[in-house]
Amino acid sequence: MLFAVLFQQPLQDAWYRLRRRSTSVIRSLGRREESGPAWRPFSLGPLQTSALIVEGDGEVPISPETIHVHVLDDEVELPSDMAGWRAEIAEESERLQAEGGTPLWNGPRYAVDSLDISRTALEEKPEVHLRLRPTDYYTFLAAQQLDRRLPDGTTPRSRYLDPDEPLKAPSFLQCSLGVNVAVVTADDMLVVTQRSDRVRMAPGVWNSSVNEGLSRHIDSSGRNAPDLHAVARRGMREELSLEPHEYSLDLLAFVLDVDRRGWSAHFYARLKDLRSTDLQARMSRGVADRWEHRTIDFIPFRPATVVRYLLREDRIRRWAATAPALFHLALVHAFSRSTVERVEAQILRRL
Q1: Dihedral-angle region of residue 57 (phi above 0 means left; psi in -120 to 50 means alpha; beta otherwise)
Q2: Cα separation of 177 and 85, whole Å?
Q3: How far apart are the C-alpha atoms of 331 and 210, rounded to whole Å?
Q4: CA-to-CA distance for 344 and 190, rounded, in angstroms?
């Protein structure tokens, strides 16, 4: 009897280990070789986006000294069978103005000709070469009609874009370049905005703290190339009434919305002294671009809280394409990749 008691538990443990190994072997027999694209857009469980993180992992900022922006002379031209779409937009704007409505402002902007990434020789830091071409807002609106039928029955998406080569596209389809900033207040609150219904592109969606497009008129003095950090600071001032001395600013990544062909420089800004209540009070006294936002949420900037917020039922299908990747990278920058991914995995297992 004593012999049976002494050896019963070791025998049970050995049997349990044998069953586990056998189960693992049986499962492995059913596995097949798998292959997939090296470039995958950002996703978080059920939250699927079209945001492709081209450079940057959030942990180490991209230094301003390693960003080289070149502006080419030749302006973007639409193919002949798309040029009429731009003319339609110009006619719509003229009609709105004639009827006393608000015309479409054809602001000068930039198209992305190419973005190349290399590494510095000694420290292997990312070095970015961004080549831009002049364009305007009407051309951007025309090029956004990626699924409109052309005379031959194709669409701009099917004719000019290869889903297996997401970084290759003609410049006339890439007339969108902007900055997105994740802003965290001094009392650790993340600023999240909902776009106004008055904006033409993506009305009502939830977005970054600050979203600002590059303007040839504002962001380029003379023939100088635009400075992405300066564009981010302009957005902070126009959308949140914040001045450069009130925050730190780090560039985390370059991201491409592969569905709409829009490029973004993703930034993280940390307010030095202003708390969430201070920022709300500041904005109540006037904001240059107040009309761009309908709602502003302040979310505790902790990995679990932000991840649950991203996955909320009333948010998960209402995000701007590049916003979830921005907030993930901001968390990684503040808390480390291992911490953020551990928290994300725990939350996803409970879904």
Answers
A1: alpha
A2: 21
A3: 17
A4: 17
How far apart, in whole angstroms, are the C-alpha atoms of residue 250 and residue 266?
9
- 247 has pLDDT over 90: yes
For 169-216, write each residue's pLDDT tens digit.
Answer: 999 999 999 999 999 999 999 999 998 777 767 678 999 999 999 988
**Beta partners for residue 192, in sequence order:** 297
Q: How many CA atoms lie within 13 A of 118 on its CB side?
A: 8
How far apart, in Å, are the Cα atoms of 163 and each of 50, 51, 346?
Answer: 12, 13, 32
In this predicted model, what pLDDT tens digit does every residue of 43-52 receive, in sequence order? 999 999 999 9
Q: Give the span between the Cα atoms of 269 and 248, in whole angstroms.
A: 5
Q: Positive or negative CA dihedral for 48, 51, 54, 59?
A: negative
Whether 348 and 44 have beta carbons less than 8 Å apart is answered as yes
CA distance linking residue 124 with residue 118, whole number of Å:
8
The predicted-structure confidence for 117-168, as pLDDT tens digits, reads as follows 998 777 778 899 999 999 999 999 999 999 999 999 999 999 999 999 999 9
Q: What is the value of pTM for the model shown?
A: 0.88
Q: What are phi and psi of 273, to 5 degrees?
A: -125, -30
Rounded distance between C-alpha atoms, residue 172 and residue 78, angstroms = 6
Q: Which amino acid is at 180?
A: N
Q: What is the dihedral of CA 200, 320, 197, 141, to 10 degrees?
A: 10
